Amino acid sequence: MADDLKMGIPSVFAGGSVLFVVMGLWAPFLARAFTRFGARRVMIGGTIVAALGFLLLASCRGPLGYFAGWVTLGTAGSATLTTAAYIMLNELAGSNAKRAIGALMLLTGLASSIFWPIASLLAKAFGWQTTCEIYAAMLMLISLPLYVFGLPAKTTPPNQNLRGIADARVNEPTHKSTFYLIAAAITLNAFVTFGFSAIFIELLKAVGLPGAQAVAFGSALGVIQVGARAVDFLGGGKWDGISTGIFAGIALPVAMILLIVSNGSHSAVAIFVVLYGLGSGALAVARATIPLVFYDKAEYASAASRIALPLNVISAASPPLFIALLTRFGNGVLLEVAILCSGTALVLLLLLTRRRPALDNTAPAA
Q1: Distances (CA, A) of 121 to 2, 3, 141, 270, 355
Q2: What tens digit of pLDDT does each residue of 231-287 get?
Q3: Which tens digits make up the pLDDT trace of 142-188?
Q4: Nearest CA to 232 among 360, 98, 333, 364?
Q5: Which residues contact 236 (CB under 8 A, 6 or more apart)?
Q6: Any residues with CB less than 8 A from the CB of 173 and at least 6 apart, and which?
Q7: What are the tens digits of pLDDT across the range 194-244?
Q8: Which of 69, 201, 266, 337, CA to CA, is 20 to 30 A from 34?
Q9: C-alpha distance from residue 21 to each of 24, 26, 193, 207 (Å)
Q10: 99 in Cβ contact with 237 (< 8 Å)
């Protein structure tokens, strides 16, 4: 892509950062659409926009068209990707939404393992432009019909639930202090996990592993993360999102402290990979399910959309910040910053335990 578009490699990879930032900026504005029309209609519109985004990428001839494609995909992503899917599952599954989200995450955890090789094969066989056109066709011929015909024709828009929240207020998550605690805890942990996801193999090299071993250890991470999601899914009825988040919040700093004091021991690195994989895999579930503890359908749609703004911005910012810390100050400083963020998030989650609704997850937060 860089050669064809006469762009530098960093500029090409900046497209992904643009995607995350645009997704985050759109999220609060889409909150009203989710609560008024329901997730199904929003996702149908977003799928059409996503296909347009891939066609823009396929037809671009330089930076302007390239980044226009990513802006379009970011707009679509806010309407179709994780936040939208979780809102949809909350509408459909109600009190069983946590288990439904866990099941979805088991599948999406394998997405890169399946589609990265497919994308590579398509690009080698047809070129990256045709690959983008194939993705646009898949969206229109597979995803769009599934949303139109595979989902219930009429999902109840969340602002029509039994609590009868007025449309004028439905976009404002109630219990603001609780919302801020949730958003801060989720964002701090996302800062760590998204940052590590970009530099994980480089971090293992920095603590003393040879390149081949770092890749081998890093390759196991995805399997461990999916395993953590599976455990949470199987026990989903026994604990809520806060409990999942606290487990993960303990596992992450413990893993990083072990890496600091281990002096590159292979056994310690292996334990670090296992603990970090379990914690980061559980956090992926917690990010989606913690708001379910405090908010009903209408409030969940609004809260999830608003949390998506800092979450996506931090997803775009953390990888370059982490690689800068690693290259300029070393793995020790990087791990200390990550421990500080994870530890602060854990404290916030512990504060949230005191605000759990006493009866059910539709009761007001304290």
Answers
A1: 18, 19, 21, 32, 50
A2: 777 765 577 888 888 988 899 999 999 988 887 688 888 899 999 989 988 888 888
A3: 999 999 998 876 555 555 443 443 343 444 444 678 889 999 999 99
A4: 98
A5: 98, 99, 102
A6: 179, 295, 299, 302, 303, 306
A7: 889 878 888 888 888 888 888 778 778 878 888 877 777 776 557 788 888
A8: 69
A9: 5, 9, 17, 31
A10: yes
**CA 209 from centroid of its chain's CA atoms:** 29
What's the token pair of residue 1? 């892509």
Q: What whole-number distance in Å separates Cα of residue 349 and Cα of residue 355?
A: 10
Q: Which residue has the tokens 């599948």?
A: 107
Rounded CA separation 348/179 (Å):
11
Are 332 and 169 spatial neighbours (Cβ–Cβ below 8 Å)?
no
Distance CA 345, CA 191 (A): 10
Residue 259 CB coordination number (10 Å) = 26
Q: Residues 7, 69: contact at Cβ < 8 Å?
A: no
Spatial separation of the C-alpha atoms in residues 284 and 189, rounded to whole Å: 10
Contacts of 54 (CB under 8 A, 6+ apart): 69, 73, 132, 133, 135, 136, 139
Residue 140 in tokens: 């229109």
Residue 361 banded pLDDT, cuts 50, 70, 90: very low
The pLDDT value recorded for residue 298 is: 67
